[in-house]
Design goal:
Keywords: Cytoplasm, Cytoskeleton, Microtubule, Phosphoprotein. By secondary structure, the chain is mainly α. It contains nine helices and two strands, in the order H-H-H-E-H-H-E-H-H-H-H.
């Protein structure tokens, strides 16, 4: 075996191990947050790794605080920010009870929902806020989607005060979200 063949075998082995780690979701371990957030596969892999590493917490029924869950996440990703953990806690708990304890399963379900679909949820929030303010959301009209102009207009005579109290019409929000999904081919 020549030197080049040995190097060739080493490169093949390296890539085989790397792609095996990608397939097994281990490639995100101890990586930076930006790497984990870079692709849907990386996000799903991180959620799987988190569950595999800490599933015993769920089996024993322990309750942990938001900051304790963040500490667990930071053991897998040292620069994991607080915001996604806070967002998950807000789904599980009411805003004024955000420091209360949560079960692992409650936290995991809320965390994976907002973590995996972060960009989509951020976009829906912008649409909701635009509708709440009486503005039409900025969307590009796709021929197969409903035009924003065809959507039921927010009544001009309806005061901003009433909109703030009542939120937005669910069917209007649903139509705007459908148009957004058509635009980006989301399911």
């Amino acid at each position: 075996v020549t030197e080049s063949n040995g190097t060739h075998f080493g490169v093949i082995r390296y890539f085989a191990e790397y792609f095996s780690s990608v397939k097994n979701s281990n490639h995100v371990l101890f990586r930076e947050y930006s790497y984990i957030m870079a692709t849907p596969h990386n996000r799903a892999s991180f959620i799987r790794v988190f569950w595999r590493c800490y599933r015993q917490i769920g089996k024993s029924g322990e309750l942990l605080s938001m900051l304790e869950y963040r500490s667990l996440l930071q053991l897998l990703c040292p620069d994991f920010p607080l915001e996604p953990v806070q967002n998950a806690a807000r789904i599980v708990l009411m805003d004024d009870a955000i420091d209360c304890l949560m079960s692992f399963s409650d936290f995991l379900f809320a965390f994976q929902l907002q973590f995996y679909y972060k960009e989509f949820l951020d976009s829906v929030l912008v649409i909701y806020q635009d509708l709440l303010a009486g503005k039409s959301p900025n969307t590009v009209i796709v021929p197969t989607s409903t035009s924003i102009e065809q959507l039921p207009p927010v009544a001009a005579e309806e005061s901003d005060r009433e909109q703030q109290q009542d939120g937005v019409e669910p069917s209007t929000l649903a139509q705007c979200v459908d148009a957004f999904c058509d635009r980006f081919k989301h399911r």
